[in-house]
Design brief:
Largest sheet: 7 strands, mixed
Bound molecules: S-adenosylmethionine
Radius of gyration: 19 Å
Number of domains: 1
Strand order of the largest sheet: 3-2-1-4-5-7-6
Structural class: alpha/beta
CATH superfamily: Vaccinia Virus protein VP39
Number of strands: 7
CATH architecture: 3-Layer(aba) Sandwich
Number of helices: 5
Length: 180
């Protein structure tokens, strides 16, 4: 291999390696099952709906959406190990026709098919996501967020759920039609 061909190869490879793979903007902390059930009830998730869990962790919201609410579910997860674990669980449960996990940064993900979006992130992460939600979510999409609200949006409902003495809050939003 000549020096020139090595240099040419580097010109091809380096920009790919340098591409940002996204930023993990929230740690992995699973929502308790009681909170998940209530989130999906408040969002009125049902058969025919697509539920997208942004930062899906081990996939527990996806699994509940499919098994208890008869919806389809898509999880977006930036962490490759956690995403693989969630995909594995979905496969083991035989839910692969109803649920899938996309290993991606949410900022690169397509959310336009969602009827319900579930979040357990942080206040600042939600704030960063708000423009994407406003641009890509269709009117009527229900957005439910565990513990952290979306600044600048008015919740339709805020509910408290107590699990083992710890208070969890659930914020429900409904995406409005775009104003001209
Ligand atoms: C608090 S956990 C919530 C897990 C799950 N949704 C639940 O409620 O049980 C947040 C998840 O978001 C993921 N995450 C953080 N930043 C992300 C990003 N930029 N894009 C996609 N997922 C991200 C983390 O890896 C983590 O698994």
């Amino acid at each position: 291999m000549t020096f020139t061909s090595v240099l040419s190869a580097l010109f091809v490879v380096l920009p790919v390696l340098a591409q940002p793979v996204g930023q993990r903007l929230a740690p992995y902390v699973p929502s308790p099952q009681e909170v998940i059930d209530r989130m999906l009830e408040l969002a009125q998730a049902r058969q025919g709906d697509t539920v997208i869990d942004v930062g899906c962790g081990d996939g527990r919201i996806l699994i509940t959406a499919v098994q208890k609410f008869k919806a389809r579910a898509v999880g977006i997860e930036i962490d490759p190990k956690i995403a693989a674990q969630a995909s594995d669980t979905i496969l083991k449960l035989g839910l692969q026709n109803k649920a899938r996990v996309v290993r991606a940064d949410v900022f690169d993900a397509d959310l336009s098919q969602a009827d319900v979006v579930t979040l357990y992130l942080t206040t600042s992460f939600n704030e960063k996501l708000r423009p994407k939600f406003e641009q890509s979510l269709k009117p009527g999409t229900r957005v439910v967020s565990h513990d952290y609200g979306i600044r600048g949006w008015n919740p339709v409902e805020v509910e408290e759920v107590f699990v083992h003495g710890r208070r969890h809050r659930i914020f429900l939003y409904v995406v409005e039609s775009k104003k001209n």
